[in-house]
Amino acid sequence: MIEVKDLTKKYGDCVAVDHLSFHIDPGKIYGFLGPNGAGKSTTMNMMTGYIAATEGTVKINGYDLLKEPEKAKRSVGYLPEIPPVYPDMTVWEYLQFAAELKKVSGTARKQQMETVMQQTGIEDVRKRLIRNLSKGYKQRVGLAQALIGDPEVIILDEPTVGLDPRQIIEMRDLMRDLAKKHTVILSSHILSEVSAVCDHIMIISKGRLAASDTPEGLMTMLQGGIEISLRVKGEAKRLEEVLKEYPQITGYCFDTMKDEGCTAVDLKVQGDADIREKLFYRLAEAKLPIMGLTLVERSLEDVFMELTGEEEVMINEEAQTDDSDIEERV
C-alpha cells in the first residue's frame, strides 16, 4: 500500500526526519506516536506531497510520489492538524470545491458529497458558513474533504486536538468506521488515543523510528518477562530460600516493609511463565502466608517513555488544547 524508504527532511543543520523507513499494509489503523517535535507532522506532509523530502522515496500503490505525483496522490486523503477549510464558503460549497480539485466527475460528485457528509455527520450544517461552525464541526468538514474521491488511504494529523471529550469519542468511532473501507494513518502524541483505536503503532523519536509493532507486541517486547509484586508474613531469609527453588525467577529485589513481620519483594520471571499458583501453594507449605500478590503490568505510557526517553508526554485527553497541558514524568 505505502512504502517509505530512507525518508529524510533537513532544515539547514536541523534534521527533522532522519532516514525513516516503514511499510503500510491495507485494512488497518496505524498510529504515529511521538512527543512534540518528533517529526510526525513533517513525515505526513512528505507522504502526502505537501512538502518535498530532502532524501528518500515514498511509493503509494506502486506509484513514486516524486515521479508520478498525480497518480500517487489520488489514493490519499489528508486531514492536516489545522483543517484546510475556507471560512467564507458554506460546507456544501467547500466540498464541491474539493471535489472539483480532485477531478471527481459531475455525475458522481453530488453522490460522493452526500455520502461523506453522512459519514462525518455534517448534513445539518451543509448551508452554514464554515466560519460559524464549532471546532468539532470544522474538523468534520476537513475530514469530509479528505474522503472526497474515495481514497484508499486516509491520513489524519492530530485529528482530536482541541475537541471536547464527547467530540473525541465521536471522532474515534468515526475512525474505526473508516477503517472498514480504508487504511487509516493517525498521528498523535495522546497515548490513550493511539492505544484505543490503532492496530499497529510506530513510535517516532527525534526523527527516527524507535519501534513498530502492535500495542500488545510493543509491551511484550519491552516487558522481557513477567513482573510480580509479592508481600508475605515472615523473614526475608526464609522467603529467599523458597524463591531460589524456581529457576524461572531471573531476579528479585527486597523492599523494606513498614508492617512488622512482613517482607516485600519484586520478582522478575522469564518469558511468559506464570508461577503464581505454584508459588502460592509452596509459600503456604513453608508457612509464609501471602499478604499480597500482584502481577505488574506495563502500560503503553511505560513503553513510550522507555523508547523515547522523554520526560514530558501528554496523557490527559481533556487537556489537549495547548502545550501547557503536559504532564511531567520523572
Outline the secondary-structure elements.
Blueprint: E1 2-11, E2 14-24, E3 29-33, H1 40-47, E4 55-60, E5 63-64, H2 69-73, E6 76-79, H3 91-101, H4 106-120, H5 135-147, E7 153-157, H6 165-178, E8 183-188, H7 191-197, E9 200-205, E10 208-213, H8 215-223, E11 226-233, H9 236-243, E12 249-255, E13 262-269, H10 276-285, E14 290-296, H11 300-308, E15 312-313, E16 327-328
Parallel strand pairs: 3-8, 3-9, 6-7, 7-8
Antiparallel strand pairs: 1-2, 1-4, 4-5, 9-10, 11-13, 11-14, 12-13, 15-16
Order of helices and strands: EEEHEEHEHHHEHEHEEHEHEEHEHEE
User: How much of the residues is beta strand, in percent?
Assistant: 25-35%
* Radius of gyration computed on alpha carbons: 25 Å
What is the end-to-end distance? 39 Å
Q: Residue ranges: pLDDT <50 for 5 or more in a row? A: 311-330
Main sheet attributes: strand count, strand direction, barrel closure: 6 strands, mixed
- Counting structural domains, the number is 2
The strand order across the widest sheet is: 6-7-8-3-9-10
Q: What sort of overall outline do the alpha carbons produce when their principal axes are compared? A: elongated
